[in-house]
């Protein structure tokens, strides 16, 4: 494609919601109501189409956060304790509590909109764990997107799909909007806004994935979560938290199928190849991580660590004993052949549905490998690390908490506002409040949007983005096409050229250096100061070469910016891991030079990039619990 002749489209709005995933849809739903009431305008922009965008695109088989407070099932206090233990003490309970007290109402909305929640004979939701309820969720995102679009439509608000946001626009220290380009048309979008909500999800493909060759691109978290929330908010000058806390999910090997239903609903165990239940035999290895090692459930990362040790010692593969779990569940029906057969069929179909609802590829793999879960076990293993503030990782923006719950140190104004005036965050983009998952992200989007509308009403002036900045970003969007046009005839193949780098090659370099130096799966998730410092140098050089990335289509242009944004996520991570001189999450990241937990790090290690000097700053913040 020749250098596009981009048309510039200017959009002026009150609240700009960047991202239409779970948090974005929650925000759109809530903001439409409050904006209409107050004569304001809301605009949602997403790089994809809302119906199938973000981490819920493939569907889910469970809603992982539902308290059912009304029926006395769970309390926000219990939730805060649970998250505190799973995160080895590092958590913002004010944020967690805030989501916990509101999340049920969102789940009730999902059901009202048509999402089937599994219920027992008495009508009680079927739980697969303490916080999870089972759903038939293949179309979960479609239902939620439909409701968000309806709310926007009925309130006369705007939605832009297939527009990729590349940068924030600033007016001094206040957010003033965002700039992006269409992935389908030759258009650059300049959005001016009084407040911006960053809800562009988490980050995948920073580390070399386990999948290679024809499987490349297969990851557990969606490959289209590419660090936009992190990049956008860092570049606006926002302080970030928990950038060291990446998530390493243990999943079914090669297709990353979920294990939650197996462990929690089917009550399955996992063993090593010698048929030892390694979570039992490896208990003594967790001693350095007391008191968390003795909590119930054992923190996710500690269970991972036990598996990592098994594989390191050659006792892998780790095996999910599906055949034993199914046999145990059908045991009670054994005397009655008809009932037994029926139960077995039911269990078998539940096992397959779990994958078909959210990770169809795993069902394909089972079929291709002739795996019958009722007859044989399946391999599980640790994935490459991901950055997700909504799941069991915790990185994201350092946000102001709710006025009625947050201690003074965590409250500087509007709920979920970052440290940048007018910039809000939710879902994967809001840090230190993990385990909110799909329902909690939707809920947090609602909370943040309501607060953002309040901010607009109380700060009702339109900021002016610096025009020079806008021109600079427009030039940056064009540049990858221009480089290609200038140098395309220097080589005999498009892929090898001394004057430019193809986005795919850039991605491989990023993944290799992060895997080898920042503790990817090939290193058993371990690293040290020397490696991390080397990694920073390599990232600097990669960034230099990134200036020469090319694009030959609008789709490849998106790849260019995804890579740039991922690289900033990588750098924020490496800098924070370097600063946290201890090993607190051995199953996520192991500092071999500081192999134990250190009470001097019972704190948040935050990071901030200075927009004026380009320097990074590390800031320690206290952990203050609001629940004992
Ligand atoms: P997302 O929902 O990912 O939304 C991000 C949005 O931002 C997307 O629409 C994306 O297109 C858009 N975007 C990204 N970059 C840009 C850009 N540059 N410009 C414009 N738009 C952009 N939760 C549960 O409750 N139960 C489960 O069982 C469960 N299992 C999961 C299993 C898997 C495999 C995955 C991937 C997730 C699972 N989750 C589960 C977690 C849940 O999906 C997330 O917590 C939730 O989707 C996070 O919401 P979010 O809005 O922050 O991000």
From TrEMBL:
Residues 14-249 form the FAD-dependent oxidoreductase 2 FAD-binding domain. Gene3D superfamilies: FAD/NAD(P)-binding domain, Succinate dehydrogenase/fumarate reductase flavoprotein, catalytic domain. It comes from the Bacteria. The keyword Oxidoreductase applies. InterPro entries: AprA (IPR011803), FAD-dep_OxRdtase_2_FAD-bd (IPR003953), FAD/NAD-bd_sf (IPR036188), Fum_R/Succ_DH_flav-like_C_sf (IPR037099), SdhA/FrdA/AprA (IPR030664), Succ_DH/fumarate_Rdtase_cat_sf (IPR027477). GO terms for biological process: anaerobic respiration. Keywords: Flavoprotein, Oxidoreductase. GO terms for molecular function: electron transfer activity; flavin adenine dinucleotide binding; steroid dehydrogenase activity, acting on the CH-CH group of donors; succinate dehydrogenase activity. The keyword Oxidoreductase applies. One of its GO terms (cellular component) is plasma membrane. Pfam families: FAD_binding_2. PANTHER family: SUCCINATE DEHYDROGENASE 2 FLAVOPROTEIN SUBUNIT, SUCCINATE DEHYDROGENASE [UBIQUINONE] FLAVOPROTEIN SUBUNIT, MITOCHONDRIAL. This is Dissimilatory adenylylsulfate reductase alpha subunit. It comes from Thermodesulfitimonas autotrophica.
């Amino acid at each position: 494609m020749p250098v596009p002749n981009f048309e510039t489209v200017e959009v002026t709005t009150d609240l700009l919601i960047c991202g239409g995933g779970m948090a974005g849809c929650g925000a759109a739903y809530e903001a439409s109501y409050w904006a209409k009431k107050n004569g304001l305008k809301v605009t949602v922009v997403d790089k994809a189409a809302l119906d199938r965008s973000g981490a819920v695109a493939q569907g889910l088989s469970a809603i992982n956060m539902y308290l059912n407070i009304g029926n006395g099932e769970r309390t926000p206090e219990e939730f805060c304790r649970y998250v505190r233990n799973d995160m080895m003490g590092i958590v913002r309970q004010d944020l967690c509590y805030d989501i916990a007290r509101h999340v049920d109402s969102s789940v009730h909305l999902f059901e009202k909109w048509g999402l089937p929640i599994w219920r027992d004979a008495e009508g009680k939701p079927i739980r697969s764990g303490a916080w999870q309820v089972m759903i038939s969720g293949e179309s979960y995102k479609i239902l939620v997107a439909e409701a968000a679009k309806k709310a926007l439509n009925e309130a006369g608000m705007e939605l832009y799909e297939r527009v990729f946001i590349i940068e924030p626009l600033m007016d001094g220290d206040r957010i003033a909007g965002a700039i992006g380009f269409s992935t389908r048309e030759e258009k650059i979008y300049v959005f001016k806004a009084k407040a911006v909500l960053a809800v562009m999800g988490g980050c995948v493909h920073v580390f070399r994935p386990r999948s290679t060759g024809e499987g490349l691109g297969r990851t557990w978290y969606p490959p289209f979560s590419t660090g936009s929330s992190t990049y956008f908010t860092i570049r606006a000058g926002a302080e970030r938290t928990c950038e060291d806390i990446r998530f390493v999910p243990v999943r079914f090997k090669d297709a990353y199928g979920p294990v939650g239903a197996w462990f929690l609903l089917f009550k399955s165990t996992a063993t090593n190849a010698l048929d030892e239940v390694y979570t039992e035999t490896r208990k003594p290895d967790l001693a350095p991580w007391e008191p968390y090692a003795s909590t119930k459930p054992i923190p996710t990362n500690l269970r991972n660590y036990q598996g990592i040790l098994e594989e390191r010692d050659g006792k892998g593969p780790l095996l999910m004993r599906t055949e034993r779990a199914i046999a145990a569940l059908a045991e009670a029906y054994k005397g009655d052949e008809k009932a037994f057969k029926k139960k077995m069929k039911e269990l078998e179909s539940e096992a397959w549905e779990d994958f078909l609802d959210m990770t169809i590829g795993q069902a394909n793999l089972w079929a291709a490998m002739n795996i019958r879960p009722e007859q044989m076990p399946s391999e599980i293993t640790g994935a490459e690390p991901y950055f997700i503030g909504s799941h069991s990782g915790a990185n994201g923006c350092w946000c102001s908490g709710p006025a009625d719950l947050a201690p003074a140190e965590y409250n500087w104004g509007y709920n979920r506002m970052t440290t940048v005036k007018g910039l809000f965050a939710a879902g994967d983009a809001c840090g230190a409040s993990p385990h909110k998952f799909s329902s909690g992200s939707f809920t947090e989007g609602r909370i943040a949007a309501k607060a953002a509308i309040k901010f607009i009403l109380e700060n009702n002036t339109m900021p002016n983005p610096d025009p020079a900045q806008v021109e600079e970003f427009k030039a940056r969007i064009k540049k990858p096409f221009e480089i290609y046009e200038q140098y395309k005839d220097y080589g005999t193949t498009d892929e090898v050229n001394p004057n430019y780098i193809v986005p795919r090659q850039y991605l491989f370099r990023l993944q290799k250096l992060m895997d080898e130096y920042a503790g990817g799966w090939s290193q058993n998730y371990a690293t040290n100061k020397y490696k991390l410092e080397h990694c920073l140098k390599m990232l600097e050089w990669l960034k230099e070469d990134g200036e020469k990335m090319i694009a030959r289509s609008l789709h490849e242009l998106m790849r260019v910016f995804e890579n740039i944004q991922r690289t900033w996520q990588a750098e924020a991570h490496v800098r924070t891991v370097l600063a946290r001189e201890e090993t607190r999450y051995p199953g996520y990241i192991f500092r071999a030079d500081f192999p134990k937990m250190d009470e001097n790090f019972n704190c948040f290690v935050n990071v901030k990039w200075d927009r004026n000097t380009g320097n990074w700053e590390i800031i320690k913040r206290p952990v203050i619990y609001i629940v004992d």
